[in-house]
């Protein structure tokens, strides 16, 4: 099978999309594409800068990657 047809190949991306759905898109009723775009952009900012991640020793991605740079 083609790599894009095997979800296990993209486990981190699949988990990100699941979290986005659970914490953002399934909790809000967006009135327009612009409203949805803004809501998702705000969630991505939160996810990268304010939400601690277990896999990153409870640091945010911004904190973890700042240390790596």
From TrEMBL:
The UniProt GO MF terms for this protein read: nucleic acid binding
Lineage top rank: taxon: Bacteria
Please list the residue ranges annotated as the Integrase catalytic domain. 1-69
Q: Which InterPro entries match?
A: Integrase_cat-core, RNaseH-like_sf, RNaseH_sf, Transposase_IS3/IS150/IS904
Q: Example GO biological process term? A: DNA integration
This protein is called Transposase
Organism of origin: Falsigemmobacter faecalis
């Amino acid at each position: 099978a083609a790599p894009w047809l095997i979800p296990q190949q993209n486990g981190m991306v699949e988990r990100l999309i699941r979290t986005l759905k659970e914490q953002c898109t399934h909790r809000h009723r967006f009135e327009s594409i612009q409203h949805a775009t803004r809501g998702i952009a705000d969630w991505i900012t939160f996810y990268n800068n304010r939400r601690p991640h277990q896999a990153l020793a409870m640091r945010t991605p911004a904190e973890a990657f700042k240390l790596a740079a």
